């Protein structure tokens, strides 16, 4: 199994930020993640906001609520939560470009006192024990080579009764088969992901780190429109690969071959190698 360093993961996001600006409405929606589509969802922007709303359902009530966005991207969800749910949000990312763009978004929203973005590793942060009432992640835990490392740190950071919630890709039974590994890696290696956990692995690892009351919801059908949009963007982007390679010969494969990831993603979902889940777990009181 190929693994990726923190620098390589940061490089992926640093070098592909333009793709998200062009193809994923980054400046409008401020999200580098899938959107959730429902019957009344009109467009990609609304779908991305739906993902934010899904996370927001689990913010605890009360005053002085502190939330951690573990893999915050450009801070879109952190800003949304601070604006709409009167909470303080710390956002962490490995990407310097994401962090800088996110800080500008925070400043534009006049939320400097409510949202703070820093460059940190979510498996080893500098926050004190029991600092947060909720920790969430949207399609960022996948980058951890060992997901238990994230769960362990989240458990340390959560107050008793606090929740860890996340939206994430989950490997299916078909995705575990050796005969499908090459197809899965076609996607994973273009997104700087070593591997994905299956649902039972996710539950087991959360339990092993002390979490209880684990619930999950399969949202695969709700992201398929996002998958199709990404494939469409990929088809348009594939024609730029030769030119990009000539103009940027020293760039990482993540940026040179990034358009392929949209095609690979669609194939992985079509072959049912991955699903998309919401998962919530609680630190016992």
Descriptive keywords:
285 residues; alpha/beta; single chain; seven-stranded mixed sheet
Name the helicity range: 40-55%
- Characterize the overall form: globular
Q: Looking at this structure, what is the CATH superfamily of the domain at 6-171 and 197-219 and 276-282?
A: Vaccinia Virus protein VP39
What is the ordering of alpha helices and beta strands? HHHEHEHEEHEHHHEHHHHE
Give the termini separation.
38 Å
Strand content: 15-25%
How does the helix and strand content classify structurally? alpha/beta
Based on the structure given, which CATH architecture of the domain at 6-171 and 197-219 and 276-282 is correct?
3-Layer(aba) Sandwich
Q: How would you write the strand order of the largest sheet?
A: 3-2-1-4-5-7-6
Query: Whole-number average pLDDT?
Result: 92
The biggest beta sheet reads: 7 strands, mixed
What does this structure look like?
- By secondary structure, the chain is an alpha/beta fold.
- It has helices spanning 6-23, 26-29, 44-56, 76-85, 96-108, 147-157, 173-176, 181-188, 199-208, 220-237, 241-247, 253-256, 259-270; strands spanning 66-70, 88-93, 115-119, 132-138, 158-171, 212-218, 274-282.
- It is built from 13 helices and seven strands.
- Strand 2, helix 5 (96-108) and strand 3 form a beta-alpha-beta unit.
- The protein has a seven-stranded mixed sheet with strand order 3-2-1-4-5-7-6, sandwiched between helices.
- Helix 6 (147-157) packs across helix 9, helix 8 (181-188) runs antiparallel to helix 13 and helix 10 packs antiparallel against helix 13 (259-270).
- It has a domain at 6-171 and 197-219 and 276-282: Rossmann fold (3-Layer(aba) Sandwich).
- The mean pLDDT is 92.
């Amino acid at each position: 199994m190929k693994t990726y360093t923190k620098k390589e993961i940061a490089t992926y996001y640093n070098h592909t930020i333009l793709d998200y600006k062009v193809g994923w409405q980054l400046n409008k929606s401020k999200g580098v993640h899938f959107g959730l589509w429902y019957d009344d969802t009109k467009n990609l922007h609304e779908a991305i906001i739906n993902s934010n709303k899904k996370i927001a359902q689990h913010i605890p009530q009360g005053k002085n609520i502190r939330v951690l966005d573990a893999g915050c991207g450009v801070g879109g969800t952190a800003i949304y939560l601070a604006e709409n749910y009167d909470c303080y949000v710390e956002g962490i990312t490995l990407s310097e470009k994401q962090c800088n763009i996110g800080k500008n978004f925070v400043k534009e929203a006049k939320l400097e006192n409510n949202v703070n973005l820093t460059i940190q590793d979510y498996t080893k942060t500098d926050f004190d024990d029991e600092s947060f009432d909720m920790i969430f992640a949207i399609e960022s835990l996948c980058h951890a080579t060992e997901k238990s490392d994230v769960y362990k740190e989240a458990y340390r950071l959560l107050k008793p009764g606090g929740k860890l919630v996340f939206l994430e890709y989950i490997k299916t039974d078909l995705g575990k088969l050796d005969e499908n590994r090459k197809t899965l890696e076609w996607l994973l290696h273009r997104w700087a992901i070593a591997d994905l956990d299956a649902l039972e692995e996710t539950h087991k690892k959360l339990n092993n780190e002390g979490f209880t009351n684990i619930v999950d919801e399969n949202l695969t059908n709700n992201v398929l429109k996002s998958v199709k949009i990404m494939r469409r963007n990929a088809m348009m982007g594939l024609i730029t690969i030769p030119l990009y390679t000539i103009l940027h010969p020293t760039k990482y494969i993540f940026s040179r071959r990034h358009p392929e990831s949209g095609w690979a993603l669609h194939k992985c979902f079509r072959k049912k190698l991955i699903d998309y889940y919401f998962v919530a777990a609680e630190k016992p009181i």
